[in-house]
Amino acid sequence: MKHDVVTVVVKGVMPTANGCAVFLGNEDKTFVIYVDHSVGNAIQMSLDGVKKERPLTHDLIGHIFLGLDVKLDHIVINDVNAGTFFARILLRMENEVSKKIVELDARPSDATVLALQQKRPIYVAQKVFDSSEDMTEILERVLKQQAAESEEAVEDDDDDIDPTPEEEDDDK
């Protein structure tokens, strides 16, 4: 299987007008999957390690895995058709009697959240990786723009700080 797939990581999540763009890739290439806002937020929260007061759907699924002693082995984004990506979740169940692997059809966005939460690998079929447009330069440009905007926001905040009484005295 290792020659048929490419290991990728989530490189960024950016809001769009209709949802979120999830940038996946490795050192060679980055591609984008578009997802709805709720799953995009779940991916970002998983990346940031945000603790939630109440479990979201993906958290609940993780709790079910734990309760049933099921391990998420890995996910594979295995196909793309007219811009729609498809994925498989591979679960491993073992006990003293037997070992079983279960493969489930899933949306790549849901599978990605689960893989991030369970700290498991994300693979992409080589044919999907090869056929996807390289978005590395776009991601780099967006990240640079965001960094510049963050620096400007910090500088603007510094301008709003009131001087200390000692600094006011220096002005006299």
State the gist of this model.
By secondary structure, the chain is of the alpha+beta class. The chain contains six helices and seven strands. The longest helix is centred in the last third of the chain and has 24 residues.
Describe the structure.
The protein is of the alpha+beta class and 172 residues long. It has a single domain, classed as Bifunctional nuclease domain. It contains six helices and seven strands. It has helices at 37-48, 57-68, 108-118, 126-131, 136-159, 165-170; strands spanning 5-16, 19-25, 30-35, 70-81, 84-94, 99-106, 122-125. Strands 3-2-1-7-4-5-6 form a seven-stranded mixed beta sheet. Helix 1 packs parallel to helix 3 (108-118) and helix 2 crosses helix 3. The longest helix has 24 residues, at 136-159. It starts with a strand and ends with a helix. The mean pLDDT is 89.
